[in-house]
């Protein structure tokens, strides 16, 4: 076969067609989508990039502020203070709920984690087109990295939360350890959702304008600042609506986190099969989202 | 067979093709740039949504037309042409970052664009950017540790004091460009695509980067270089493709093509 190849590069007299020549030398079509196992392998090879990118984004976020990284803790605290002022003081929701401040702050932090992950996911591809168009890497790295950044952010918030809990006299118990599995499940759920949103957002950037409204609605129905149980007690809503409200993923993760952290939030306040719901949502979103994102891998950043 | 060898290995036949571009057309679709008057108004947008079955008015830009060529191992190929002639577009398509409208592009391994700009963050220190950029290009942590000092030394950032520990936003544009080039050129590539990288930095850095390109070319299979600087094309490339209005106007040895090109751009002389 080398007789053919020895032809000088500039002569156009090669008897083979370009496709045959490519096949002969094992050349492949540029920019084709890898198979699923190959994709997962590529992603695993880029794990250090994913973590480094997340940490870099987090650090860069407040690097221009005078107080610097202190804002990592200040921002969630200020958020919680605003909600406390409106729902705790002005609307006096706290009548219904024991340990209202820890209840509220836990809800706000846990929901913010999902909310920010979805928002970041929506912009993960459309907002990083420069990166996508310049370098080769499995595109799922971006949404995953953004969710990791939100997880790191949440860990700062959790430090603040621990201080708040102790200040309001919530005793540390062994159930605090449940925070770890809850966060792992919620992170998987968030990442899956972010992957779905990343694909949608890369096709239709307008979704980024719409999402804040969707997410705010989701927040109000997820019992962030009120107890779904306490509010629904006297209402005679159809059973299906009640199940829907209690099993929505955000409510599930928020309730589990409250159950783990706050001693007055007892098992009785959790919906039935709550761990199964938490696991189910995480698997559904995580696996489904990943497959959905991978299906369009070769189209990101193009056209 | 040859696939099993390392990219730098001498095992492959010389002259083996590394990139085959077969009758390629590239068309950009630009949303929100329709020619009709009154577009962009809310009512017009609403009307489009109501009317549409997935075809809002999109303008097409035919950037590359029917280009074919075969690049072989060991070649350094310059791409020249006036502004907007489709050079960078063609390069991105070879890298697999833009879809082709018609035709096919085959490549050996993964052609990489020399450019990590987008992965770097101005608010981070040069040091963290070196690591981040290298990770983004797919280098392993060990490779980065091994090459870190080399990257910093090559960029010459630390020649005027300890600048590598300062955020990149404090760098002058020349310094930032030098650091970007040193990060981007730190990795070995099968097929390396360089877009106007040599225009950056002062004269001494340009000399060094030309030497680096020659070095990369020896290690890499094939180097593509887009540049408006005919001198750097002459110094680094042995074959030149001349694109004009998206069409391949000439393909041949550097001296011949540059002579024609210079006559085309300076008709008076």
Shape of chain A: elongated
The level-1 CATH class of the domain at 2-111 and 189-265 in chain B: Alpha Beta
SSE order of chain B, one letter for each helix or strand: EHEEHEEHHHEHEHEEH
Give the distance, in angstroms, between the N- and C-terminal Cα atoms of chain A.
39 Å
Which pair of chains forms the biggest interface, and how many residues does each contribute? A-B, 45 and 59 residues
Low-confidence stretches of chain B: 1-12
Radius of gyration of chain A: 24 Å
Main sheet summary of chain A? none
Number of helices of chain B: 8
Helix share bin of chain B: 25-40%
Helical proportion of chain A? Answer: 55-70%
Average pLDDT of chain B works out at 79
- Tally the beta strands of chain A: 1
Unreliably modeled segments of chain A: 1-13
Count of discrete alpha- or pi-helical segments spanning 4 or more residues of chain A: 14
Number of domains of chain A: 1
List SSEs of chain A in N-to-C order. Answer: HHEHHHHHHHHHHHH
What's the N-to-C terminus distance of chain B? 53 Å
Spell out the CATH superfamily of the domain at 2-111 and 189-265 in chain B: P-loop containing nucleotide triphosphate hydrolases
Structural class of chain A: mainly alpha
Topology:
The complex is a heterodimer of chains A (303) and B (269).
Chain A: H1 2-5, H2 18-24, E1 28-29, H3 36-45, H4 47-61, H5 71-90, H6 100-124, H7 129-134, H8 141-167, H9 179-203, H10 207-221, H11 228-232, H12 239-247, H13 249-261, H14 274-294
Chain B: E1 17-30, H1 42-51, E2 59-72, E3 76-80, H2 87-94, E4 102-107, E5 112-114, H3 126-136, H4 141-155, H5 173-184, E6 191-195, H6 203-219, E7 222-226, H7 230-236, E8 239-244, E9 247-253, H8 254-265
Parallel strand pairs in B: 3-7, 3-8, 5-6, 6-7
Antiparallel strand pairs in B: 1-2, 1-4, 8-9
Helix pairs in contact in B: 3-4, 3-5, 4-5
């Amino acid at each position: 076969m080398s007789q053919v190849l020895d032809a000088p590069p500039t002569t156009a007299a090669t008897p083979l067609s370009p496709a045959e020549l490519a096949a002969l030398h094992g050349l492949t079509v540029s920019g084709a989508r890898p198979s699923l196992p190959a994709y997962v392998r590529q992603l695993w090879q880029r794990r250090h990039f994913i973590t480094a990118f997340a940490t870099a984004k987090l650090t860069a976020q407040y690097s221009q502020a005078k107080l610097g990284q202190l804002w990592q803790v200040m921002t969630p605290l200020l958020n919680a203070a605003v909600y406390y002022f409106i729902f705790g003081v002005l609307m006096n929701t706290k009548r219904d709920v024991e340990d209202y401040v820890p209840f509220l702050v836990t809800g706000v932090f846990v929901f913010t984690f999902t909310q920010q992950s979805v928002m970041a996911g929506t912009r993960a591809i459309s907002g990083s087109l420069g990166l996508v168009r310049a370098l080769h890497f499995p595109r799922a790295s971006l949404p995953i990295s953004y969710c990791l950044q939100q997880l790191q952010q949440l860990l700062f918030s959790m430090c603040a939360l621990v201080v708040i809990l102790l200040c309001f006299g919530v005793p540390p118990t062994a159930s605090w350890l449940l925070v770890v599995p809850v966060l792992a499940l919620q992170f998987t759920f968030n990442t899956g959702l972010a992957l779905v949103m990343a694909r949608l957002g890369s096709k239709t950037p307008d979704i980024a304008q719409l999402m804040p409204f969707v997410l705010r609605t989701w927040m109000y129905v997820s019992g962030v600042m009120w107890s779904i149980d306490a509010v629904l007690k006297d209402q005679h809503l159809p059973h299906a609506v009640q199940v829907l409200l209690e099993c929505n993923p955000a409510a599930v993760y928020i309730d589990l986190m409250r159950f783990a952290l706050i001693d007055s939030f007892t098992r009785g306040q959790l919906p039935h099969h709550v761990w199964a719901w938490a696991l189910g949502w995480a698997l559904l979103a995580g696996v489904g989202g990943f497959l959905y994102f991978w299906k369009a891998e070769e189209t990101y950043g193009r056209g | 067979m040859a696939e099993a060898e390392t990219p730098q290995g001498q095992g492959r036949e010389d002259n083996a093709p590394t990139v085959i571009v077969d009758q390629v057309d590239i068309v950009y679709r630009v949303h929100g740039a329709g020619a009709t008057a009154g577009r962009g108004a809310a009512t017009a947008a609403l009307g489009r949504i109501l009317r549409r079955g997935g075809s809002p008015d999109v303008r097409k830009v035919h950037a590359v037309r029917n280009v074919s060529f075969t690049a072989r191992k060991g070649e350094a190929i310059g791409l020249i042409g006036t502004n907007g002639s489709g050079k960078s577009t063609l390069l991105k398509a070879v890298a697999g970052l833009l879809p082709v409208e018609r035709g096919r592009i085959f490549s050996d391994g993964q052609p990489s664009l020399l450019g990590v700009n987008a992965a770097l963050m101005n608010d981070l220190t040069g040091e963290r950017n070196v690591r981040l950029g290298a990770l983004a290009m797919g280098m392993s942590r060990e490779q980065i540790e091994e090459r870190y000092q080399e990257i910093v030394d090559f960029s010459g950032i630390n020649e005027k004091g300890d600048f590598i520990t300062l955020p990149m936003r404090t760098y002058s544009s020349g310094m930032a460009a030098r650091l970007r080039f040193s990060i981007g050129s730190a990795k070995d590539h099968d097929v390396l695509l360089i877009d106007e990288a040599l225009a950056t930095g002062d004269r001494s850095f340009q000399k060094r980067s030309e030497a680096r390109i020659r070095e990369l070319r020896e290690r890499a299979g094939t180097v593509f270089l887009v540049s408006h600087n005919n001198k750097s094309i002459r110094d680094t490339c042995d074959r030149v493709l001349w694109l004009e209005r998206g069409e391949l106007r000439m393909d041949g040895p550097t001296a011949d093509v540059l002579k024609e090109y210079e006559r085309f751009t300076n008709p008076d002389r």
